[in-house]
Recover the amino acids of this structure.
């Protein structure tokens, strides 16, 4: 069998946010809702406070009597406005919690798979938009300072009044297989030995997604692919990407050529080897496995699991 689909929706694609677009420009309603609003504080490194497997959403007015100019409205949950702020004074240690236990710190890679659909959406949106704010402080037209408006979803140039919007950078991620029993996995130079994943790369200007798949795989490992098919997508806010998943076929007889330096080694693995690796855990495991695969928060894991399940 050469075709397959994702067994389940990628974990970070479950984000069930109520995105109230019209509310973003209603300053009176935003101010009125601030007294009961909740806020997610995000550190410069993208970490958040957690209580168990839940995001710690705090009372906004208790932390900030006035709504911070660069706060971002994430959505509305149970009638309450939910905001995100960049907290540059974030204490990145385990801190004493309230009466219900200890508040811990975590990041999206470590806790994203544990969050419910609404909280996953809040977290990935906060990371993406706050990162955009950090890098969009000056106008791309004349270099003048910009200021946030519309609840953090637009920045406007203070000189020419040009409007800037949050960017999303598309990247393809492709599972290459031989149409039968083997899959191509690769390792970047900065990854430890035995850690492998599927191939990925950013879409260039004027390029179709299918053309990007073929180009990136040829550039990274020297392999020509065909029969490119779409699988699904997942937001990946590191800092503001979206991963567009594909699978494609290739001939394992082709010689590897690592032309651009992004890949240290690549190998073809059998379905049995991949199944064994999936049972051993993921990159975080200490298992003495021949092959270690990405964790469940990544669409890469879901793609590999779906391919490995073919024939079962």
């Amino acid at each position: 069998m050469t075709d397959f689909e994702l067994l389940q929706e990628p974990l970070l694609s479950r984000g069930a946010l109520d995105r109230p677009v019209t509310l973003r420009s209603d300053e009176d309603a935003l101010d009125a809702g601030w007294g009961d609003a909740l806020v997610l504080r995000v550190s410069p490194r993208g970490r958040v406070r957690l209580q168990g497997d839940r995001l710690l959403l705090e009372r906004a007015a208790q932390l900030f009597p006035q709504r911070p100019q660069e706060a971002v409205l994430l959505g509305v949950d149970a009638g309450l406005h939910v905001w995100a702020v960049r907290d540059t004074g974030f204490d990145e240690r385990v801190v004493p919690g309230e009466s219900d236990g200890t508040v811990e710190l975590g990041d999206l890679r470590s806790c994203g798979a544990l969050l419910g659909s609404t909280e996953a959406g809040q977290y990935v949106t906060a990371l993406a938009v706050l990162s955009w704010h950090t890098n969009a402080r000056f106008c791309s037209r004349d270099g003048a300072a910009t200021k946030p408006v519309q609840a953090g979803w637009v920045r406007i140039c203070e000189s020419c009044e040009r409007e800037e919007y949050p960017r999303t950078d598309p990247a393809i991620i492709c599972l290459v297989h031989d149409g039968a029993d083997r899959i191509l996995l690769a390792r970047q130079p900065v990854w430890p030995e035995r850690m492998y994943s599927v191939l990925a790369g950013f879409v260039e200007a004027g390029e179709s997604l299918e053309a990007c798949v073929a180009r990136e795989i040829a550039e990274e490992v020297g392999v020509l692919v065909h029969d490119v098919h779409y699988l699904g997508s997942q937001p990946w806010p590191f800092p503001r990407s979206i991963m567009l998943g594909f699978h494609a076929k290739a001939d394992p007889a082709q010689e590897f050529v690592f032309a651009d330096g992004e890949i240290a080694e690549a190998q073809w693995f059998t379905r049995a080897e991949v199944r064994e690796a999936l049972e051993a855990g993921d990159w975080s495991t200490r298992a003495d496995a021949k092959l270690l695969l990405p964790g469940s928060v990544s669409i890469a894991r879901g793609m590999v699991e779906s391919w490995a399940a073919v024939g079962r």
User: Anything to note?
Assistant: The chain has two domains: 12-164, 168-308.
